[in-house]
Amino acid sequence: MQTPNAETGRDAEFREFVRNRGTPLHQSAYLLCGDWHLADDVVQDTLIKAFEHWKRVQAADNPEAYVRRILINEVRGRWRRRERSVPVAEFTDEPSVSDATDDILRRDGLRKALLTLPLRQRATVVLRYLEGLSERETAAALGCSVGTVKSQSSRALANLKSFFTRKESIL
Amino acid sequence: MSTHDEIQLSDDLRHLVAGHSFQADPDALLLRAQRARRRNIATKGAAGIGVLAVAATGTAIGLNGVGGTPQVQDAAYVAQHVAAALGSDANNIYRETDLTAGTVTYQDQTTFNQYFVAGTGDTRVVAWDTFVTVGNDAHSQDTTVNFKDHTYSTDDQDLGPVGSSSAKGSTIAERVEQGIKSGQDKIVGTGEYQGHQVIKLASTSDGFNFEMWVDSTTYQPVHSISTEPDGTKDVTDLAFLPRTPDLVHTMTTPQVPAGFTKVDQASNVGHGG
Questions:
Q1: Which of A63-67, B63-67, B127-131 bottoms out in mean pLDDT, i.e. has the lowest?
Q2: Mutual orientation of helices B3-17 and A146-170 as an angle, nearest 10°?
Q3: How far apart are alpha carbons B63 and B75 in whole angstroms?
Q4: What contacts B118, CB < 8 A, 6 or more positions away?
Q5: B chain contacts of residue A30, beta-carbon cutoff 8 Å
Q6: Taking Cα atoms as reference points, which of B259, B194, B203, B270 lies closest to residue B54?
Q7: Measuring CA to CA, which residue among B110, B100, B149, B157 is closest to residue B126?
Q8: pLDDT band for position B181 (50/70/90)?
Q9: Between A and B, how many residue pairs show a Cβ–Cβ distance under 8 A?
């Protein structure tokens, strides 16, 4: 049984983790599921699960990677249960593009293109290019080999490029 | 992509999420986490009832409407009415009866108080999680009663001044409505279930199958079946109950039988059935 001090310590650590890592997890979750409200739910459920296994989180070589893996599994689980993001065409939570600069249009396109990727490819892009993880760290977060990360990353980038190429040809 | 493109990709991704922060109150989240851990059943509860997702291309089906007038309905029609039914009255108490796990969970969609029963008879575990105001402070008061061990435990957590913390979370209706916005489900039939004339909606994705049965009059979900690729099923009955004073009282007032021993933390695992 945990002592009261251990309980207090764990609670304090958890609060600190939420304060420090909540926002990065939230931002990754948004790119993974495409909706800020859904991302909020996903991160909350992720952190609750992390708390249930807090000893394991703390004992992990990289606690953040451990929680990130919970997050990805949470997104994957919701995907399977059909709690999917709103369709790309129905994104409404971003400001309208009144001054349509190239940057804004490109990023809007990127956001939509991301959601067309299979979940593992999308997660690879988010971990590698948003969070800046190495291939080894990404492999740890995804629970796969470095080779798989390389192949998934390569396919994802090719698919993203293809998305923009197709869009340009339509335009 | 070239290295230049990859740098651009990183930059664009960061711009896409810039300025957004995680707003959840760490104290409120800790409270939820503590409850979940203590119950050891939180995964199911957090998942809610699964989600109904309906596309506009569902199979049309004929049903008798009010007064016996035949109506031709499709999945989009059903989705619209389910959303309206759930959104029109959030002031109810949601009951989820997990037929697979043998648990019943009540959640007040207004206050987020929860009442939980696992198992039946002399081996059941009953728990109450309620939020009350004592003086100027919000409190979480949790009670767990174990009928097998004849033990109970209580936990009162001071959440600080009213308004500094909350138990806010997604209502079941919000989760279902969220799911309705997406998906490729279709109507697969009709039938009768526990006195309800139901419309059966189903979807399959990556080997997972999710079926939800909706009352054809009220459009409230009454039953769901989730099937994993390995054939494992999770079967649940659903109900949205009127928020009557008696039910609220039952949910929020712990009933500890005389002679039960108070312990630090009453067990809530392995006593079902």
A1: B63-67
A2: 80
A3: 13
A4: B41, B101, B102, B103, B124, B125, B126, B268, B271, B272
A5: 16-17, 20
A6: B203
A7: B149
A8: low
A9: 142
CB count in 10 Å sphere of residue A13: 15
> What is the torsional sign of CA B63, B64, B65, B69?
positive
pTM score, whole prediction: 0.52
CA-to-CA separations, A84 to A35, A119, B47, B103, B184, in angstroms, rounded = 9, 11, 13, 27, 11
CB–CB contact B29 A47 (8 Å) = yes
B166 within 8 A of B25, measured Cβ to Cβ:
yes
Smallest CA–CA distance, residue A131 to chain B, in Å, is: 9
Q: Can you name the residues that pair with B115 across neighbouring β-strands?
A: B106, B128
- Whether residues B53 and A18 touch (CB distance < 8 A) is answered with no
With an 8 Å Cβ cutoff, are A84 and B17 in contact?
no
In whole angstroms, what is the distance from residue A71 CA to residue A28 CA? 9
B46 contacts A82? CB cut-off 8 A: no
pLDDT digits over B25-41, tens only? Answer: 888 888 777 776 655 43
- Residue B50 DSSP class: B
